[in-house]
Amino acid sequence: MMCLLCFLLHAENLLVLTVATKQTEGFRRFRRSAQFFNYKIQVLGLDEDWKGGDDKKPAGGGQKVRLLKSALKQHADKEDLIILFTESYDVLFASGPTELLKKFKQAKSKVVFSAENYIYPDRKLEAKYPTVRDGKRFLGSGGFIGYAPNLKKLVEEWKGKDDDSDQLFYTKIFLDPEKRVCVVKLFLWCMLPQNYCSDIIAGKRLVGCQLSVFLGVFMYLTNRHQFGHILSLENYQTSHLHNDLWQIFSNPEDWREKYIHENYTAALKGKLVEMPCPDVYWFPIFTDTACDELVEEMEHYGKWSTGDNTDSRIQGGYENVPTIDIHMNQIGFEREWYKFLLDYIAPITEKLYPGYYTKTQFELAFVVRYKPDEQPSLMPHHDASTFTINIALNRVGIDYEGGGCRFLRYNCSIRAPRKGWTLMHPGRLTHYHEGLPTTKGTRYIAVSFIDP
Ligand SMILES: *[C@@H]1O[C@H](CO)[C@@H](O)[C@H](O)[C@H]1NC(C)=O
Ligand SMILES: *[C@@H]1O[C@H](CO)[C@@H](O)[C@H](O)[C@H]1NC(C)=O
């Protein structure tokens, strides 16, 4: 009780400042979430022209510093006032002031900035940043929190133009040991775990924002605490088992982080790409989470085909080489899958098959289930595709035994598929292949026939 009370008192001392020159839908959403949690907010710059950078000069943001500097004059002597400065167009609150203040206090800094994975706008500064063991390393100016007098000191030196970079300004302060020591502690800001705020508002999934990483006065940088991310809730689907899978359009960065293999980037540069059989490429694409959620989603849906030749789901209604499978469109995942192919498979294809530019159009994309007592294997066949991707969704030797794929022309087999890795091979003519028998357990693969 005592403690609850003291947090409530503290909450009185929190003010949220944000810059919004226009009342966009995103801004209104931000404001609704702030009202829901009883944040006091003050909006700066409404109806001003936005001069802080645009597509041609994206760095920008200086206008926000100017507005903040001017707003802070009236708060400078309020020693106990804690100010959260945040963007608003793509931010929502997922928890209340109490939680936010608690995290801020835990950071034990006067000022804490949000952290990011990428350095921006000046990559040359990278070497000056302290290294971190895990988590995000670089300063982001999208959200920071601190005591009013410290924030005032922080922006006091701003003499930039409206379209100068605010992030660069804060970064330089942070990277200057002297200034950091006497003025600032920077912390990082982040979002809640995705399940944290589920169902808070009318059963809708809510976004969370929270402080997660901070850069301290004494060069202390910790970001061991990851609390989640900011999500856009527009178009958030709630009808699936793993709704995040559907977020590739609305939250592409989060989607990538959650579902794309950490070594995909290396594969894109040609590293880690193997060729186990002629013209069959093999590279990491999915995280374990992506594999697990896709399989679970399919099992949850549950309407596996019977493996008959008659198949009303396809054009003509007849399948030569039937598998026991579920098509992506049956779970309403076709658009998302297409986006995934376009964003992650097409760039690699263009690297590996130079001169070939795919639009990754596909007739068929599905998850296949192999089981000894159901359908253990697949007879030799050509795929109806220019090229095929075949992603292993679980682990040989653990989830199943046997399995793999053999290309008959080359008498070449891949007997130890790697979970999260995809095979990519030409579909017709040369790459006649068969699915080798699964002898125990259940094996899942995600297959797409891409054409052209
Ligand atoms: C990524 O590649 C590195 C170097 O080959 C390896 O050590 C690491 O385990 C790989 N990550 C995953 C998730 O497989
Ligand atoms: C195919 O390769 C296997 C070993 O991988 C070998 O035992 C077999 O004789 C080969 N078959 C032909 C037709 O070359």
Question: What percent of residues adopt helix (DSSP H or I)?
Answer: 25-40%
Please give the alpha-carbon distance between the first and last residues. 66 Å
Number of strands: 21
Assembly type of the shown chains?
A: single chain
Describe the strand arrangement of the main beta sheet, using strand numbers.
9-10-18-14-21-12-11
> Given the C-alpha coordinates, what overall shape results?
elongated
Query: Could you name the ranges where pLDDT drops below 50 across 5 or more consecutive residues?
Result: 1-9, 181-234
Give a concise summary.
The protein is an alpha+beta fold and 452 residues long. It contains 11 helices and 21 strands.
Structural commentary:
- The protein has 452 residues and is an alpha+beta fold.
- 26% of the residues lie in helices and 23% in strands.
- The protein is built from eleven helices and 21 strands.
- A seven-stranded antiparallel β-sheet has the order 9-10-18-14-21-12-11, with helices on one face.
- Helix 1 (2-12) packs across helix 4 (97-107) and helix 3 (62-72) crosses helix 5.
- The radius of gyration is 26 Å and the shape is elongated.
- Mean pLDDT is 80; it is low at 1-9 and 181-234.
- The structure holds 2-acetamido-2-deoxy-beta-D-glucopyranose (2 copies).
- Residues 262-263 line the site of one 2-acetamido-2-deoxy-beta-D-glucopyranose.
